[in-house]
Amino acid sequence: MSETDTTDTRAAIEGENPEEIADIDPEEDSDVERAAREIPPGRPLRVDDLRMEFGGLTAVDGAGFAIEEGSLTGLIGPNGAGKSTTFDCITGVHRPTGGSVKLHNEEITGLQPHEIAARGLVRTFQITRELQEMTVLENMLLAPRGQQGEALWRAVLPGVRRSVQAQERELRERAWETLEFFEIDHLAEEYAGNLSGGQRKLLEMARALLTDPEVVLLDEPLAGVNPTLERKLLERIDELREQGYTFLLVEHDMDVIMENCERVIVMHQGRVLADDAPAAIRENEQVIDAYLGANV
Ligand SMILES: Nc1ncnc2c1ncn2[C@@H]1O[C@H](COP(=O)(O)OP(=O)(O)OP(=O)(O)O)[C@@H](O)[C@H]1O
């Protein structure tokens, strides 16, 4: 392998051109290439050559990117570009038909959503009709998966009961702390269905964070949120980033993306068209042609 090849491989790994990663044949790897493809410690989430086909339709067509720890990265693209399907493949809602998703270098491709959540990657979910009939606090207590308390039989075993009770207590404390963090603790006894659109978005975020994730995928968290709550939500995201949480955000509001994300990934027809800082994205001719046009 020539020095130029090595440089190109490293450039691809550093995220300068993630699409190049798909061109590397794993069978042909040297030790140097294999070592270089390990996720650097600062990149908890990595997607390589991701594909998702529904019958004859290719929704995701070899998408690849890596996300920096503690970052807020935007994922944008025109309708049907494959953003939601990419989220669904990362979080285990769909089993991708090709490619790989790694969390801290661990292969999580094709795992169930609760298995992925247990490893530290979650997404926000809309509060369903069923959850709307529960209080905010009940919504919080239902959120974490894989808690010992879920396995009821454990509670009847001697010795385990105490640990279940301790875990329940801890969960309640954490639920209250999280509600306070999002300033919706005063709504704890309110039915989720009575919350405003913005308050519901805060609850969705609070629920996701209760599992203590490292990486959080946000699917349009600001849709229908008034400017005051929008500011509050973005401030909370900033604080959480300082604590090391990592966010990947799908959002149609281009101002929010451009003003708050340090990096923007643009998808088009199932592929990554561009992956750069907002200022560079604004000026990228391909992006303007494919998507932004009059939006910037
Ligand atoms: N379950 C499914 N079965 C069949 N086709 C699907 C399915 N989910 C998505 N698609 C198709 O895959 C393509 C990508 O859709 P996707 O929802 O991922 O795009 P998107 O970028 O999130 O779009 P939007 O911004 O409109 O939400 C679309 O053509 C869509 O119709």
TrEMBL record:
The keyword ATP-binding applies. Residues 16-31 have a biased composition (Acidic residues). GO terms for cellular component: plasma membrane. It comes from the Archaea. The keyword Transmembrane does not apply. Pfam families: ABC_tran (PF00005), BCA_ABC_TP_C (PF12399). GO terms for biological process: amino acid transport. SMART domains: AAA (SM00382). Keywords: Amino-acid transport, ATP-binding, Nucleotide-binding, Transport. Residues 45-294 form the ABC transporter domain. Residues 1-43 are annotated as: Disordered. Probable component of a branched-chain amino-acid transport system. Belongs to the ABC transporter superfamily. This is Probable branched-chain amino acid transport ATP-binding protein LivG. It comes from Halococcus thailandensis JCM 13552.
